[in-house]
Amino acid sequence: DGEVHINELKNGNVEMFWNPTSEVRRQRLKRHIVLFEEQTDFESERLWQHVTSAINKGDQHKATQEKFVLEEEQRNAARERRENGTEWKPLLFQHDATTNEWRYKYEDLRPWDPLNDIAQFEKNGILQTMERHLSTRMSNHKTTCINNQITRHKRSAEDCRRRKTSDQPSNHSQNTESSCSTPESVQELSDDDGKYLGFESLCAQCGKEMNHLKEIHSAVLSLQRAQQDIHR
Questions:
Q1: Cβ neighbours of residue 63 under 8 Å, at least 6 residues apart?
Q2: In sequence order, what DSSP letters do the residues of 128-193 get, joined into one string?
Q3: What SS3 class is residue 214?
Q4: Segment 5-27, tens digit of pLDDT
Q5: How confident is the model at residue 180 (pLDDT cuts 50, 70, 90)?
Q6: What is the pLDDT of residues 75-87, one digit of tens each?
Q7: Which of 24, 93, 122, 232 is deepest in the core (most CB within 10 A)?
Q8: Number of CB atoms found within 10 A of residue 168's CB
Q9: Coiled-coil region(s) at which residues (predicted)?
Q10: How far apart are CA 21 and CA 2, in angstroms?
Q11: Mean pLDDT computed over every residue of the chain
Q12: What does the alpha-carbon distance between residue 12 and residue 7 come to, in Å, rounded to a whole number?
């Protein structure tokens, strides 16, 4: 959000290349960083602190020396791992043998959905997307879960009817039928009718996802209230 100039070395002319307006400056993204004292030894700001300090002081020679020290330490560490047979296992990246490149493990390449996606954020190095509604994956899982329960319920009812007709005398059919009665409208079960079959919850994953969505919804409402306060 600052001015950028082009310096012509041949004739010494200086030309304005970019001069952002006040509107552009107001739209600048807010920078969020981890506090220096909370960073680990290998996080960039802490790892390169001496190089950065030298650059800010205009000491190119010192910056080069500090950079060499870091790179030499990395070479020595790699050499020790080779000698000890220790395999380096990155936490957030994996090697693509096809392209011979390192790729981020949790990259999300799907198109941004402005109607459903709210924001992307990073937590513990993992990029995540906050969504307004259940994702297709969760909806499909929920549907499969319900269908499995219906199938089990139907199978149980059929077994009950078979036992009734084969094992019980005809004069006891009324009592048997009352103990093995089955709702006739099972096929019309909707997504929210899990309790109709006597199930308190669809499955552990569904319950976990629903609780997570409730937390996200509460966070979104809190952000909206904060935005309203800022506008006022």
A1: 51, 54, 55
A2: EEEESS--HHHHHHHHHHHHHHHHHHHHHHHHHHHHHHHHS-GGGHHHHHHHT---TTGGG--TT-
A3: helix
A4: 999 999 999 999 999 998 888 88
A5: very low
A6: 999 999 999 999 8
A7: 93
A8: 14
A9: none
A10: 9
A11: 78
A12: 7
Query: Distance between CA atoms of 223 and 174, rounded to whole angstroms?
Result: 60
pTM for the structure as a whole: 0.39
Instruction: Count the Cβ atoms, other than its own, within 10 Å of residue 194.
Output: 19
Q: Which amino acid is at 188?
A: E
**Hey, what are 119's tokens?**
């924001």
**Are 214 and 202 spatial neighbours (Cβ–Cβ below 8 Å)?**
no
Predicted confidence (pLDDT) at residue 40 exceeds the cutoff of 90: no
Q: What is the mean pLDDT of residues 58-80?
A: 95
Token pair listed for 100: 């011979």
Q: What share of the chain is helix, strand, coil (3-state, %, to 5)?
A: 55, 15, 35
Long-range contacts, 145-150 (Cβ 8 Å, 24+): 145/202, 145/203, 145/206, 146/189, 146/191, 146/194, 146/202, 149/194, 149/197, 149/199, 149/202, 150/186, 150/187, 150/189, 150/197
Distance of CA 20 to CAs 6, 17, 26, 39, Å?
A: 15, 10, 10, 33
Alpha carbon distance 177, 13 (integer Å) = 98
**Which range in 33-37, 143-147, 157-161 is most confidently predicted, on average pLDDT?**
33-37
The one-letter code for the residue type at 21 is T
Tokens of 221: 């409402």
